Amino acid sequence: xxxxxxxxxxxxxxxxxxxxxxxxxxxxxxxxxxxxxxxxxxxxxxxxxxxxxxxxxxxxxxxxxxxxxxxxxxxxxxxxxxxxxxxxxxxxxxxxxxxxxxxxxxxxxxxxxxxxxxxxxxxxxxxxxxxxxxxxxxxxxxxxxxxxxxxxxxxxxxxxxxxxxxxxxxxxxxxxxxxxxxxxxxxxxxxxxxxxxxxxxxxxxxxxxxxxxxxxxxxxxxxxxxxxxxxxxx
Length: 234
Prior knowledge:
9-stranded mixed sheet; 7 helices; globular
């Protein structure tokens, strides 16, 4: 894997943000980036409150519990335009959204997915967790247990959605679905595989270093306020 020429991307740590708010922010950023109102690619780091999301291939058929049970649990289901099937997001999972103008970065969609997988693999390795790829499904795996998922969308050459890496989260909600529509596979986390807690801020920092190495870029911090102002300006 040969990194692109060094360049600067902005990154923003959004903390914990409801999924619909982060989704709307992404769409605003994609529009601003494609129109040139934002001239730098952006990486968003975020955690979400519990939510199930469905990709372009749907996924309600992969629910293993009734939707009534989900309503009682208070966990919503959101249909979005990313690739892939059903998945779960929750606190303790590091979600990374690259808002990247792919032609400008010299990347195709497959290149982007390959590199996002590599980011997760390298981040896991920092805790001695040997993650890798699996021909069954894109993402990061430890044996037959999935530790990280990928689902992206591209609009006017700009990518959004991204990766979700299980750092230190409650895995129980994954038992309510067939993750990514796959039968007979498990789900794990960095903390479970490492046998010790993994702090989210440390995982985020490791993921940032991996992004810089894999994409040949330098990440420059930006505040959420600065980013929001750019995203919502006309």
